[in-house]
Specification:
By secondary structure, the protein is an alpha/beta fold. Helices cover 35% and strands 21% of the residues. The protein is built from nine helices and nine strands. Strands 1, 2, 3, 4, 5, 6, 7, 8 and 9 form a nine-stranded mixed sheet that branches. The longest helix is centred in the C-terminal third of the chain and has 17 residues. It starts with a strand and ends with a helix. The model has no long low-confidence stretch (mean pLDDT 93).
């Protein structure tokens, strides 16, 4: 069994040692027959990455000639990943040593599992944000995206939506929400892992903090969903209302 951790790198060479250390720590907490590879998908052509080595994990490096954004970098990494399970981990975020072991146990025969997490030093889901109610189809189609980033999510590779892979957003920001909606449209349910295994780090260059850019990305996402009829049972007005809800949150 193999797990691929895919990390898009953008002006982020300084984060790579920590990414390697986290992946190695995860390897030290799993059975010997579970392999881990770290895929560094560089989306900053002006600063090509060299090679990196580890005694216990595999490290793959991809250098792209043109900056295309985080979704394209994730998909490029996915194209070379050899794991049956995928984690899309942002360069400055953190997974805990027990992440892979616990997530694999929790996913079972399912397609996707979401763990609890820390955001800005606080538990993300609490009494005001019920974990069990938020990670549902109903919530994501009426309230917006409750998952702080891609890092808390372990996905079975074969279940990653082709609609997501074939429709790269021109404006970065909403591709994680787009992936969840594509998977929901294809009938996948999100399994919950009650363990806290991931920490989201917010910094000044985080795309999610750029409100206008995020809103443009989300608008593009909703147009793709409607134009491609990804949700056959829902009318376009559902997504018009959802977009308005998301805008109001911003």
């Amino acid at each position: 069994m193999r797990v691929s951790i895919i990390s898009p790198i953008y002006k982020g060479v300084q984060y790579i040692p920590a990414l390697i250390s986290q992946a190695e720590a995860c390897k030290n907490h799993v059975r010997d027959d579970i392999e881990i590879e770290l895929v560094l998908s560089n989306d900053y052509p002006e600063e090509p990455l060299g090679t990196y080595e580890s005694d216990i994990i595999d490290i793959l490096v991809i250098n792209t000639p043109v900056n295309r954004g985080i979704q394209a970098a994730r998909i490029k990494g996915l194209s070379v990943a050899t794991g049956e399970y995928i984690v899309f981990l942002d360069q400055d975020d953190k997974i805990y040593p027990d992440y892979v072991r616990s997530q694999l146990k929790a996913i079972g025969d399912g397609a996707v599992v979401v763990c609890r997490c820390i955001n800005e030093g606080k538990l993300k889901y609490n009494a005001g944000e019920c974990f069990e109610k938020m990670i549902t189809r109903e919530y994501m189609l009426t309230k917006g995206d409750p998952i702080i980033s891609t890092g808390p999510v372990l996905i079975r590779k074969e279940c990653i939506s082709n609609s997501w892979k074939n429709n790269i957003l021109k404006t970065s920001g909403a591709d994680d929400y787009f992936l969840w909606l594509c998977m929901i449209a294809e009938g996948y349910k999100f399994t919950l892992n009650q363990e806290v295994l991931y920490e989201h780090v917010v910094n000044g260059v985080n795309t999610s903090l750029d409100t206008q850019r995020m809103m443009a990305s989300e608008h593009e996402m909703f147009e793709i969903i409607k134009n491609n009829k990804l949700f056959k049972d829902e009318e376009d007005r559902v997504f018009d209302e959802l977009e308005n809800t998301v805008i109001q949150k911003h």
